[in-house]
Design goal:
This protein has helices at residues 10-21, 34-46, 57-67, 82-95, 101-107, 111-120, 135-145, 187-205, 225-240, 252-256, 258-264, 283-296, 322-347; strands spanning 24-27, 49-55, 75-78, 126-129, 156-162, 173-177, 210-214, 245-250, 277-279, 300-307, 312-315. It is built from 13 helices and eleven strands. With 348 residues, it is α/β, with parallel strands linked by helices. It has a six-stranded mixed sheet, sandwiched between helices. A five-stranded parallel sheet has the order 3-2-1-4-11, sandwiched between helices. It has two domains: 5-147 and 310-347, Rossmann fold, CATH 3.40.50.10950; 156-300, Isocitrate/Isopropylmalate dehydrogenase-like (Rossmann fold). The radius of gyration is 21 Å and the shape is globular.
Length: 348
Amino acid sequence: MGAEQGAATDVMAALREKARISPQRIVFPESSEENIILAARQVLDEGVALPILPGDPAALAALAEKVGVSLEGTEVINVADEAVMAALVEECSALLPEISLKSAERKFRSNLNIGSFLVRAGRADAMVAGLAHATQDVILSAMTFIGMREGITTPSSIFLMRVPGFEGPEGEQIVFADCAVAVSPDANELADIALTTAHTVRALLGWEPRIAMLSFSTKGSGEGESVEKVLEALRIAKEREPGLAIDGEFQLDSAIVPAVAARKVPGESPVAGRANVLIFPDLDAGNIAYKAVQRLAKADAFGAFLQGFAKTVSDLSRGASVTDIAGLATMASVHAQGLKRLESESAG
């Protein structure tokens, strides 16, 4: 998940405690990978998630024996069974009539697509994938079967950063977005990212978001196309969610340092100097920023955690360790819990 030795910090301990309250069903479509088998065993033993593995039961049992773990308690979807696959294809065609039986048969040759469909069908609460697939493949599969959250068209991601010595509204924690997916978002896409991040922060962390739209300019100190884009994104986001605490454009210090905000930001702002979410204007800025903070400040970076979908989808790094996979699965379990909570509150 990007956290190095900090994966065993209080941040993950707190997330594990939340996950144990109501462990969610998580499908791991890349079940032929040794690290996936080991991570599935770990999250089950820790009580943070209920793993689902699509695969050939005999092959999975052999792999589990090879790595020295048991599959007991793990749900296996037997993709080697023609009857099981035929039932999945029929279920897909009934639930998603735009996908023909023949198309579903073809798409279900990929366990990644099977995993996405299990989430769409409500047979899993979340999917964790990406160890053997590119991020764009995970996103495409999720968009095809799970779909986007209502009103959102832009997939994106967050990093939960724990910065030693940082004294922000959430202690040493702060959220960065987007640092992994949207390369050069326009104003509408940037507004999507801000609103999606607010939703993720509520679901995953239980925070009330205070969102800073970042730039090289603070409240008109600079000008140019990039500043105009951020201001337009801010306008759109405010229009779409009027009650959200969001402001900008801010330089980084104006967003997180109260003394700087007091000098640079005129008037009252619900965010200036107190932001707990930073929205970067493009992927260059976001990716460079999180890596710089991670390496120079010895920060932990938990993620990248995908967002914007109707259900929980998490993308792994190709080189993810067992600890990384288990950590991201823990986040996915908490996020899936949070989505249900927010839906229930909205319905109530």
